[in-house]
Design brief:
heterodimer; A: mainly alpha; B: 221 residues; mainly alpha; elongated
Chain lengths: 237, 221
Amino acid sequence: MFDWLFRYANPARFMGLSGKLLPWLSAAALLALAVGLYLGFSAPPDYQQGRTVLILFVHVPAAIMATLVYGCIAVASLFSLVNRHLLADVAARTAAPLGAGFTFLALTTGSLWGKPMWGAWWAWGDSRLTSTLVQFFLYLGYIALWNAIEDETRAARVCAVLALVGAVNIPIIKFSVDWWATLHQGESIVSGKLAGVFLTPFLFMMVFYMLLFACLWLVRIRTVILERRVRALMGAA
Amino acid sequence: MTPFIALLARDLRLSVREGGGAALALVFFALVATLVPLGVGSDLALLAKVGSGVLWVGAALAALLSLDRLFQADYEDGSLDLIALSPLSLEGTAAAKILAHWLSIGLPLTLFSPILSVFFGLSAPAVMALTLSLAIGTPAVSAMGAILASLTLSVRRGGLILPLLVLPLLVPVVIFGAGMAVEVQTGLANGAPRFLLAFSLATTLLSPFVTAMAVRLNLAG
């Protein structure tokens, strides 16, 4: 079923393909960013939130990426455990700091948005902010475990199990935090449909974030592969 | 004596004797319960409000203290290799160790909590709810802890990284555990006991398999 994918699990083939893809992905990312920013800044101020609605274009995609990247890590970890592909290990490891970065961005922008909206930098009543914080800790633990185990193969297997345990638990954690927030009756956030003038720039920014992640991820994976080649060559010399 | 009982009895003996973590966890729990009022003030109304939550967090933290000993000591002196060679499967080993950890840490913490709840002036129904919620929830703490303890086996000074890995995964237990006390305080059924029981059962049943897998990864090569 995954034959087409595994053809690119060969590092040499992967390097060839990713090298060709990278310039195009980077250009597309820049284009999406330019269009997203232009449309975002030219959108009229929201009748309730004023100009602070601009934070939405930075914050919401980052929050979505926080979950999406963890999903990528979980899938890579599954392939790492089942198929023992070296590339899957590298992919899982290199995605983690990017995911942690997106999560941190989501937290800080969420907090900055919260000040004008809720009058506080942090509102425990908003369950999404709280579960994003827990997710941030999960990323940090995952990265810390990778760094703590010296043997790379063992670290890959062990971290793959951790990523999967985390992936199973994330929905439960989100559910429990949602439940907790309703229990304590915090201030409810203004929820409504996103108007078209905001939806289009948001979608462009979302595409930008995804492309940005794809580019950075590919660059990181390529760097690790090159690093290993250098090490192998130095060892052979 | 079956291998399961033998291993369980051995681990229990080790944890209650000198250098074991059983007494340490209780003292730590008592210290947390002492420090919180000293930090937030002596207002009994406030303390009664936060008491169950504080005691739940304290119990979860106290149970973490001895987690790194669950497999680490046996791994370092080679006993774990011998246990792995015994007729008992690694899944059975993991289950015995989780049960031993709960019997020596989780159960004493549960039984100790009504005494500490005096510090917070909790009402009798609140104390009942807290004790019951700890009885249901602490097995999940041991079981979730066992997974992470086995994953960090080959980490030198793994005890430092362990709380960082376990605590985020214990968020649901703490929320639903303390939620049971809220249910009593507000008098409104909120479903916390069911969610806590579900989480605890699922974690406790699945943990031996994941733990055995992680031990296998660390014993190989």
